Amino acid sequence: MAKSILLRENLRSKQVWGQLYGSSLPLILAEYSQAQSGIKLLITPDNLSATQLQAELDFFLEKKEHEPELLMFPDWETLPYDQFSPHEDIISERLYCLSRLQQTSNAIIISAASTLMHRLCPPQFLNQYALVLREQQTLDTELFRQQLQQAGYHCVNKVLEHGEFALRGAMIDIYPMGSQTPFRIELFDDVIDSLRQFDPETQRTIAKINQIQVLPAREFPLNEQSITHFRRAFRERFTGNPSQCPVYEAVSNHQYPSGIEYYLPLFFEETFTFFDYLPHDATICLIEAVAEQAEQFWQEVNTRYEQRRYDINRPILNPSDCFLNPTELFTNVNHYSSLKVQHCPSEKKGAFNFNIDHAPSLPIERQNAQPLQRLADFISDSGRRHLLVVESAGRREVLLDLLKQSNIIPKIQTSWFDFIEDNTPINLITGPLIYGAELIDSAISIIVESQLFGEQSIPQRRSSQKTIDPDLIIRDLAELRVGAPVVHLQFGVGRYQGLQLIESGGNTNEFLVLAYAGNDKIYVPVTSLNLISRYTGADSEHAPLHRLGTDQWQKEKRRPRKKFMTWPSNYLISMLKEKQNLGMCINCPKTTISVLSVVFHL
């Protein structure tokens, strides 16, 4: 293992680590996880910080065989009691994480507090429906098809997404949950002759492998036994005629209705929590304001329960059936060895505050002949080693041009460990860090783009879409009529039903209501109007109405791309030349071009 920059032996007795500004927090967590084997659960305040922490830990972790496995247990990315289901890729990652927890003894799991407050399926469910396929194994194709369908897989003509399989004579294509690629199984009679990965876009095989693991496609079963249990539990929990409930009817007909995840407890005798998957010697690390965020999420759960509990045609379970309350969450946490880390200094008795400073602001001076003069002065005066971190190779090259103008020639590093094993004073690397840090005791300065170019250079990793000013959104919505077809980027063509005020977490916000097939609805914040576009088909009165929870929209989106790719390249080139318009040429200093390239992500 590489040498530690922050971790010290005397830290093991401390329960709180403070003054971990910027990127020093993921650095200490990476060093701690590498020094101590076992399962470590890192609980973040929210989903966005969990995603960012995963990227930062991957940057600081050494990539060796015996290093801890980095896992994410993602949120469903739906609001409590929502009437649409999470994306298949999210379910895949969740099931993979739960499965790996039963197989590995050295891993880092990252998850938000609200995600851990959801009740889960029993571990026995994953073991019961998980399959392992190997070369030269006998395989009954009809039995295998039944097993896949009972595990929630869909039989399709062409496998494109997680949870799909296709049977074509002596060849079976399947995209297992938890897998990065789909697989092609080739049979010789009833024996597996070969197992290969393939590209879902081109359908061409990539590489040969020895075995594959097939996890269930959902977090609950849908076989005769589980359906019977669901129907009985539904009638016991709710009054009224169950045949009037579309969820009850869909499950009875072996279908997956949208939002079925919030009825998960009805499929099992008892539910479990994420902590039931953890070994007793696991370590839990609480990051920043976890308790406050857990309380806020619990309030949101109860608010949405009150809003939806009176719908007799779609009754919902009590919050205690689907979620842990904050007290239950931290009761589970207290059963394990725990540690709290935070950016700000801690005044608690027994806490340890690191000797780390905030990263300084070193703004670029766009009008200066040497735009990075402040950075040059800081480097010459600080007496430390410096690591400049940019998000991509393209931005690295642009920054190199700017650095040369200030006579700063950094060494290009390929990993964090190459940097700490080197003694070069000025270094440059690509990485996902969005905040720098001054590591005083180690004489290391981590400098990121936001210190040079301001907050606008920090990428929005969760979405490439831009938000729109709410006032402009209201003016745009005034042009829409109720019932007009609209297109949601993720869910397809629906019907605009107007605006609705919804209170959540003590705040009242305005949402667009979009209706889909089967009387399903989604609620889109007005600040996310960028996800909505007008339907531009020839006849809006006969516009399609997509169904939530299916792959219909995703398949329709692929058709234009496939058609486009089949056009002759010479026709495309000639068409583009006809559309070409000559612009005005402006002579601009190289310094200005470099600055603009960095600021505007060119």
From TrEMBL:
GO terms for molecular function: ATP binding; ATP hydrolysis activity; DNA binding. Transmembrane segments: none annotated. Its EC number is 3.6.4.-. The keyword Nucleotide-binding applies. InterPro entries: CarD-like/TRCF_RID, CarD-like/TRCF_RID_sf, MFD_D3, P-loop_NTPase, UvrB, UvrB_inter. Residues 479-577 form the CarD-like/TRCF RNAP-interacting domain. GO terms for cellular component: excinuclease repair complex. Gene3D superfamilies: 2.40.10.170, 3.40.50.11140, 3.40.50.11180, P-loop containing nucleotide triphosphate hydrolases, Penicillin-binding protein 1b domain. Keywords: ATP-binding, Hydrolase, Nucleotide-binding. GO terms for biological process: nucleotide-excision repair. PANTHER family: TRANSCRIPTION-REPAIR-COUPLING FACTOR, UVRABC SYSTEM PROTEIN B. This is Transcription-repair coupling factor. It comes from Legionella oakridgensis ATCC 33761 = DSM 21215.
